[in-house]
Amino acid sequence: MTAGAMSPLEAELRALIAAKGPIPVSDYMALCLAHPTHGYYMTRDPLGRAGDFITAPEISQMFGELIGLWAAAAWQQMGGPAPVRLIELGPGRGTLMADVLRAAYALPAFRSALRVHLVETSPVLEQRQRELLGALTVPIAWHRDLAEVPDGVSIILANEFFDALPIHQAVKSTEGWHERVVSLDDAGRLAFATAPSPSLPIAARVPAHLDEQAEPGTVFEWRCADIPRALAARLAHGGAALIIDYGHAESGLGDTLQAVRGHRYADALETPGEADLTAHVDFAALRTVAERAGARAFGPLTQGELLGRLGIEKRAARLKAAAPTKAATLDAAIARLTSAGSSGMGTLFKALALAHPALAPLPGFE
Ligand code: SAH
Fold first, then answer.
1. Do 276 and 52 contact (CB within 8 A), yes or no?
2. Which of 29, 108, 232, 321 is 20 to 30 A from 90 via CA?
3. Which residues line ligand 1 (CB under 6 A)?
4. pTM summary value
């Protein structure tokens, strides 16, 4: 790339690293996504066909409607508390919440108990959410951080939120585990490197069976536990959470940091701030953090299993009966949302439910 084509964030990162030294991968990812002026989510709506990637609620209304029915059933299981806070983390365009609320009409008592709280850092996406949801009669409040949402019984939803939270990476050597960093190469370009000294606190994070398997050069990843810990702690006031994302059920080894731009994979160090950066969610780690913070955990199930149990086929049949010309579109959406392998989201995506410890298994997780 020529110097003229350098993104504004790349210029800033090069200057920062030249002045202060290499930065951990987690800081790099955080700056790429959330830098106040050049961060990926701060400057654009990345969703949809014209954007960089598409998510389950953008594929079909059935996804959000089934989650709305899940939320209503979970609320009934809790004894129908009123009010109840319906919190969504990272609501994107607001599509999931719109579909959830439409499904919630089926249970008027649930709908009238709802206080909606959207936790969103992106001003651009908050604007999209206000356009879509602002006219609804349900009370809705926006927040930059989960900590700003008042306590109380909550139903918390997060779809493709945790994959966008920064990961740390470490690389194994014969001496131990070293933090993976972003540095500058001889030509002054951004390049991955490893911290010179091994770190004992990092080594302590790597599960023993993975440490044994790891050859020199192997990458191990982890995320900061603050948000899942805060989420689980909130459930002590009562409630449940449904977390859906792509990732693995068991902790593993390997580099999953991924850049996507215009629906194609890109180089994670090229055009920082202009490509989406995500990494697999480690559901075993997420579950452990939540349980240690006092929540009860169910799953993970695959997204295909969960949507099947929540009745996606029945939902499609009703929609087809109402609009027969949509049958092929609905079948394609079901295939995309539930099928296995790399073409579908059915097995790569997982669903984890968290709950107040007194709650029985949540709908779909029995
Ligand atoms: N849930 C939506 C959007 C997924 S994209 C969907 O399924 O379509 C990730 C979303 O999380 C975006 O709305 C992004 O702006 C938001 N986000 C990323 N990091 C965040 C953070 N730390 N706090 C709150 N929102 C965040």
1. yes
2. 108
3. 41, 47, 55, 57-58, 89-92, 96, 119-122, 125, 159-161, 164
4. 0.97
